[in-house]
Design brief:
The chain is of the alpha+beta class. 35% of the residues lie in helices and 16% in strands. The chain contains 2 helices and 3 strands. It has a 3-stranded antiparallel sheet with strand order 1-2-3, with no helix packed on it. Helix 1 packs antiparallel against helix 2. The longest helix has 22 residues.
């Protein structure tokens, strides 16, 4: 009698598990190098740190802003009716928060500020 084919989904491998394996292997190699020679172990440690730093610095950085650009649905109240929008700034301390600054068309010395929370990425 034959067995039927069993369809098992492969387990998802964790990135953390792979990183742990690499750290253990690297530590083992480094321990062996230190056992052979202290100077070679120090040189290997400095070389590994230099390569890791170079790899981290050379990776491209995303140029996407943390929050989406403001839309036409800017906040309004009775105090800022007719004001001209000066700028919209994403908050650096609170993710998902925009700070709207507006002023009267003739008087730029007085500004009005709105802080809008709960902005989601589009």
């Amino acid at each position: 009698m034959g067995r039927g084919k069993q369809t098992e989904e492969p387990e998802e491998r964790s990135v953390l598990a792979g990183a742990l394996v690499l750290v253990v292997l690297g530590g083992t190699v480094l321990a062996v190098v230190f056992a052979v020679s202290d100077a070679a172990g120090i040189l290997a440690t400095v070389a590994a740190a230099t390569v890791a730093t170079w790899w981290t610095v050379s990776r491209p950085v995303s140029d996407m802003p943390a929050t989406p650009p403001p839309g036409e649905d800017r906040p309004s109240c009775s105090e800022c009716a007719g004001h001209e929008l000066i700028g919209v700034t994403p908050s650096q301390t609170q993710k998902g928060m925009l700070i709207y600054t507006s002023a009267e068309p003739g008087d730029l010395t007085h500004t009005h500020v709105h802080i809008v929370e709960g902005v989601t990425e589009r």
